[in-house]
Amino acid sequence: xxxxxxxxxxxxxxxxxxxxxxxxxxxxxxxxxxxxxxxxxxxxxxxxxxxxxxxxxxxxxxxxxxxxxxxxxxxxxxxxxxxxxxxxxxxxxxxxxxxxxxxxxxxxxxxxxxxxxxxxxxxxxxxxxxxxxxxxxxxxxxxxxxxxxxxxxxxxxxxxxxxxxxxxxxxxxxxxxxxxxxxxxxxxxxxxxxxxxxxxxxxxxxxxxxxxxxxxxxxxxxxxxxxxxxxxxxxxxxxxxxxxxxxxxxxxxxxxxxxxxxxxxxxxxxxxxxxxxxxxxxxxxxxxxxxxxxxxxxxxxxxxxxxxxxxxxxxxxxxxxxxxxxxxxxxxxxxxxxxxxxxxxxxxxxxxxxxxxxxxxxxxx
Length: 365
Ligand SMILES: [Zn+2]
Description:
By secondary structure, the protein is of the alpha/beta class. It has helices spanning 22-27, 29-45, 117-120, 160-163, 171-176, 196-209, 227-240, 253-260, 265-275, 300-313, 338-350, and strands at residues 2-3, 10-11, 60-61, 70-71, 82-85, 88-91, 96-97, 99-105, 138-144, 169-170, 182-189, 216-221, 244-247, 287-293, 319-323, 356-359.
């Protein structure tokens, strides 16, 4: 049970640590943002991460993501990976990153497993080994230990404990993890965004080395990267049969800022640009989308906005609605009801999307 500090209403659909309700986010956006910023500040201070993207006039500019930090001497950028040391940015590079990896037997629980090559055989024989699920092969899951957003419901929040640690892994190490049974590599996290140059470096080497066999390059991302990096991701996924999975977290920008700390503008622009190329290779899908149904915050109105947007570009783009599980600063919220999840599914179909589904049905109440 949480209380909204603006309207004093209490409800189990209000996150107490966030301290503001959906109605106030929509009707009193400036005040709601102020309340939300406090929660973001607190959640980031716990891990030594900057409260907001630094904007020092004389700072070094990092243009990898939407935050476009200007990092002053002795400080870190928002994601916590790059530091201004005596006037130059140090930290991760194309050769070194903050990440970990493991193999998952296919078919795995990837957000696009219901449509992707490894999960269904879509694109066989060019992009998949079998006409059905790729049993006997593996996904190399590459987990990056930093993010460009600060979602208050982050399900992998523990990566924050690793972001500022000095240890790095090399591109060579990750390259060596790709074995003969690896048929796809999926970059996730955190988010791949702050370390896309590293991921592209290893991916290009791997694709060249294994060009005679199937090796798909896939991404699970919040879509906040710069356009140049996005284009390089699209190229390599297009070529290899990989899927780029965009997590579209909220349609309303104020709500997006409340939940993630950052605007959705770049994500929306990038999705539109990438999705416009989805017809270049429809099977397996180049682009897929997902939205987490956060109880009390992501409702039919949000889903309608996102679904309409996706359908206006290409109604064939697969869209997953993901069931919520309480984590991080929103661990006091309940599970999503079956009824609301199905109402959202119908809304997405009404807006014209041809492929919509609810992921993790077992998490519905
Ligand atoms: Zn309220």
